[in-house]
Sequence to fold (148 residues):
Amino acid sequence: MVQRSWAAGINDPEFWNPKIRSPTCFNEPAARTYLPHIIAKTRLALAGKSKAQISEAIGSALDTRELPAQEIGAMCYMMSKDGHLSDRDGHWHPHLMFFVPLTEAKAWGAGQPGSPVIGAPEPRERVTVFLVPVSKWSDGTADSREKN
Fold:
């Protein structure tokens, strides 16, 4: 699928950026447990809801278990050169993303000196997303940009 800007965390500064397009390949656990969150946020965004209303609705859906908790092993591949992940980073780097129930990112080694892993906790959505850059794009070419 191609995610749009509102798939990001509610506090992301580019939450409403119309240029965002993030080609994503979900595995089965992510399709069962992460994708429903994205679909719910998309419906709310397309209905014209504010960020606060979206956040409240997602929190309520998690409270009532209308939206599932993240399943162990939920992950995706973001390895297309055609993505535009932000105005600052463009298509950034090819990477894998792992979705886990909200946790301390440092406990997984994210953000530690020398670690390639980036952790992005989203407390309102009760998920921590770990990003792991990889060396090649989906077409097999090397990621030649210098790592950020």
